[in-house]
Amino acid sequence: MNRKLQICLVGLMLFAFAKAKSQQAPEPLLTKEQAVELMLQNNFDIQISNNQLEVADNNQDILNSGYLPSVTGSATASYSNSDSRTEFGSTRDSLGILVAPRQPVVLNDQISRRYDASIGADYLLFDGLGRYYNYKILKEQYNLSDLQVREVIENTTVQLMTVYYDVARITENLSVFRQTLENTRERERRAQYQFEYGQVNKLEVLNAQVDINTDSINVLNARQNLENAKRDLNLVMNREIDDATFVVDTLVALRPELEILSYLDEVDDNVRLMLARSNVQISEWDINTAKALLLPRIGLSGSYGWNRAEDPQSPFFPSRTSTSDAVNLGASLTWNIFDGGQGITGIRNAKLTAENEKLRLQQIEKQVTRDISNARGTYQNALAIYRLQQQNLETNRNNFQRSEEQYRLGQITSIVLRQAQINLTNALTTRNLAKYDAKLAELQLLQLAGDLMSQPL
Fold first, then answer.
1. Averaged confidence pLDDT in the chain
2. Is the pLDDT of residue 3 over 50?
3. Residue 44 sits in which domain range?
4. Do 369 and 397 share a structural domain?
5. Could you tell me if 375 and 310 lie in one domain?
6. How far is CA 125 from the centre of its chain?
7. Which residue from 43, 195, 263, 279 could staple onto 449, CB 3.0 to 4.6 Å apart?
8. pLDDT, tens only, 63-110
9. 74 φ, ψ to 5°?
């Protein structure tokens, strides 16, 4: 199969695909807001984090605090059915005369029953305030889990928008490559006409056909990259992976630079800093919890019991029924005066852990300061590159338009025109990349400032 036939086949394929696409209904638009909503509802990492938050919420409840008494109840019942035979031996009377024994006593179906019921309550009145600080720790652990959910949401949102803008960038690039292909086809048709009238040689036609082949490959690669990027986006949103019947919003609104930089004046809402501060607070309360083990414990207890017994008659006693109940109250004082030094060791270790958390907070503060400085520089550099790429695009667009005019007039060759076309295509794709890089740099700055989810994307 010669090169010309290959080019024709590729062109026919692209034409058939474009015609089929034009006859289909327009694909629905997936906005950024819709993508974020789907992410919040369906993303696996966010669902797992929300479940962990619910566990922390259960743990901080009063039912898990240790402040409520423990109440236990018990009840038993027993049943017995027995047969008995009692035989008596001979006896002597007061004169020493042998007396005949009594007749045996036979008792069948002798039923006895027992019923017991009791209820008791125990309450820890004082445990050295360990319970109090444990409860505060559980509350703070819930706040910590809430911050962890926020961190997962912020990171997933940045991941989502990175993929979303990648889909938008490839979509725009695909449009650029299609336009480039259409321009090259027009050049090939013009060269074919000129060749038929003897105005140019066959080389002009062949060059245009080679360029069509190259541009067609660029379109095919961009289309495949777009399908892959859409699958990545569906994965983050937890949708059907191969559902590519949607388009994304390619409109990007960059905020004024001064507005973005103003968010960096206060970074107390940075989630990493808030997580570190929460860990410091928990470690300080752990010290008080460890100290509580050295103090006495005072407990109260109370119980009520009820018993009923139904006994059958015996050879010596008639049947009887007895019922009793009792109320018991008590108090206890326990003090582990010396536990072999384990309590003291626990306090020392808790203090060291708290010191480590404070050092880790200082380390994270330094890291966040560095990250903000780097992100600010990256953002400003991305904006500057985007502005320069805009200017470069205008220059290359003007150059291509003038080259087209000169080519029609026969003042330049197709090679020069092709180079101008390549320069314009590269300028368009590079401008697209710079535009989305600037937007992602903006989002990363908002994330570091702690304002990512409170600002429109």
1. 90
2. no
3. 3-65+129-294+340-449
4. yes
5. no
6. 41
7. 263
8. 999 999 999 999 999 988 877 777 776 677 777 777 667 777 777 878
9. -145, 150
Cβ-contact 432, 169 below 8 angstroms: yes
40 part of a folded domain:
yes
SS3 for the chain is CCHHHHHHHHHHHHHHHHHHHHHCCCCCEECHHHHHHHHHHHCHHHHHHHHHHHHHHHHCCHHHCCCCCEEEEEEEEEEEEEEEEECCCCEECCCCCEECCCCCEEEEEEEEEEEEEEEEEEEEEECCCHHHHHHHHHHHHHHHHHHHHHHHHHHHHHHHHHHHHHHHHHHHHHHHHHHHHHHHHHHHHHHHHHHHCCCCCHHHHHHHHHHHHHHHHHHHHHHHHHHHHHHHHHHHHCCCCCCCCCEECCCCCCCCHHHHHHHHHCCCCCHHHHHHHHHHHHHHHHHHHHHHCCCCEEEEEEEEEEEEEEECCCCCCCCEEEEEEEEEEEEEEECCCCCCCHHHHHHHHHHHHHHHHHHHHHHHHHHHHHHHHHHHHHHHHHHHHHHHHHHHHHHHHHHHHHHHHHHHCCCCCHHHHHHHHHHHHHHHHHHHHHHHHHHHHHHHHHHHHCCCCCCCC
Residues 6+ apart with CB under 8 A from 375: 441, 444, 445, 448
- Report the b/e string of 438-450 with b at 16+ CB within 10 A: bbbbbbbbbbbbb
**97 part of a folded domain:** no
Does residue 4 have a pLDDT over 50? no
Predicted pLDDT of residue 13: 53
DSSP-derived pairing of the beta strands 70-86 and 105-126 = antiparallel
User: What CA–CA distance (Å, rounded) separates 5 from 420?
Assistant: 27
> How many angstroms separate the CA atoms of 254 and 297, rounded?
63
Is residue 353 a part of any domain in this protein?
A: yes
Q: Write the pLDDT tens digit of every residue in 124-159.
A: 999 999 999 999 999 999 999 999 999 999 999 999
Residue 266 maps to a domain: yes
Q: pLDDT digits over 16-48, tens only?
A: 555 544 455 688 999 999 999 999 999 999 999
Q: Identify the CATH number of the domain in which residue 255 sits.
A: 1.20.1600.10
* pLDDT at residue 25 in the model: 63
Q: Which of 313, 377, 303 is nearest to 120 (CA)?
A: 303
Nearest Cα to Cα of residue 247 among 30, 25, 38, 24: 30
Q: Kindly state whether residues 392 and 318 are assigned to the same domain.
A: no
pTM: 0.85
In this prediction, residue 393 carries a pLDDT of 97
- AA letter at 111: I
Give me the CATH number covering residue 122: 2.20.200
pLDDT at 441: 97
